[in-house]
Amino acid sequence: MTTEMQEIAITEEKPLLPGQPDPAKDAEAAARILLDQGQEHSIETPHGLLHVTLHGTSNTRRPAILTFHDVGLDSKSCFSPLFKFEEMQEIVKNFTLVHIDAPGQEEGAATYPMGYYPSMEQIAEMIPAVLTYFNFRSVIGVGVGAGAYILSRFTMAHPDSVEGLVLVNIDPQARGWMDWAAQKITTLTSSLTEQILSHLFSQEEMSANADLVKSHRDRISKAPNLMNIELFWRGYNSRRDLILDRTSNFKCPVMLVVGDQAPYEEAAVECNSKLDPTTTSFLKPSKLTEAFKYFIQGMGYMASSVMTRLSRSRTTSLSSSYSMEGERERSRTLSQSSQGGQMPPSPSHTMEVSC
Q: What PANTHER family does UniProt report for this protein, alphabetically (predicted)?
């Protein structure tokens, strides 16, 4: 009986030396940085280019979360702090985020010539091109101020494209003659920066948040695209009424968010009274991150998410809105700052956004 010996080649696995880079970890870190910073796109629309930042992948069976910011802000200053909260990370991991900058509001944008800036209605007509570009079947819209108005118009024109709508600080009404006269006087006596700050904050909020207001004042007044900000501001002040009635408006669930002593609190309350109470939630100052999770769950997503205590109600009055434990912190713009781009810890206070 013969015995054959076979030569077997063995590849030696050399462990990484201390301090030697790990390609797999480097790739993972690079992917994480890319996910955090987002992928920027310039999208052609019927009324010009839109700057859009995508976080995550567009290949998902869930609706994307599409945001639109207010006047005097851009997508980063308006929404980055919110989505960096620890409590929002489950949503960030499970949904694609799409942040739209209004025309000319992104960093480095070219100045629009006078008379060429799109109206609020035209900006709403630009959004379908974003869904087509990323091949999104539907979205959950989150809009603040002017962005809430624009997303409302888009939703009314394309009801099948929107599964849910979060409207923060919405004023659906056009300016009346008295408002127009007051605006003319304000234009003569106040700078553009101060006009926008009065839109973003009430007098009470300005007094209670001096540092936050100062940071916005410095950012707006020194913005290189200040002319574009002014054009967006003028367009918002020239908006038309949103025709609201309970039977023929939004076909999707809506969450309205408004704060105490806010510039447009009455307008938001009036808007709430015109929407279907069975599909509309009204949120007074409270923990927005927690309420947003409940809103997502109500549409059938994230059913296994563990939630803390939050009493939810659907209402058309201020007295029976969302309630939540916690100390109030006043800020109208969703712009609670996070230093150095680090993820803030889960806040012990509530996040207030007023209209």
A: N-MYC DOWNSTREAM REGULATED
Contact between residue 321 and residue 67 where contact means Cβ atoms under 8 Å apart: no
Read off the tokens for 64.
């994307």
**Which helix H or strand E contains 66, and what residues bound it?**
strand 64-68
Question: How far is Cα 324 from Cα 269, in angstroms, rounded to an integer?
Answer: 19
Residue 129 has a pLDDT of: 98
pLDDT of residue 59: 62
Residue pointed to by tokens 């205590």: 309
- What is the predicted pLDDT for the residue at 263? 80
Q: Are the C-beta atoms of residues 252 and 167 closer than 8 Å to each other?
A: no
Check: CB of residue 308 under 8 Å from CB of residue 86. Answer: no
Identify the pLDDT of residue 313.
39
Q: Which of 321, 308, 315, 317 is nearest to 352 (CA)?
A: 321
Rounded distance between C-alpha atoms, residue 117 and residue 100, angstroms: 16
Residue 112: partners with Cβ closer than 8 Å, 6 or more residues away: 103, 104, 227, 228, 231
Cβ distance 318 to 282 under 8 Å? Answer: yes
**Residue 47 · residue 122 · CB < 8 Å:** yes
CA proximity to 207, closest of 332, 324, 82: 332
Radius of gyration of the chain (CA): 23
Nearest to 73 by CA among 51, 98, 53, 102: 102
Cα gap 201→196, rounded to integer Å: 9
Structure tokens at 23: 């390609």
Contact 283, 289 (CB under 8 A): no
The H-or-E segment that residue 249 falls in is: none
311 secondary structure, DSSP code: B
User: 283 — phi, psi (to 5°)?
Assistant: -110, 115
Using 50 as the pLDDT threshold, list the residues of the chain that sit under it: 1-13, 26-34, 309-355
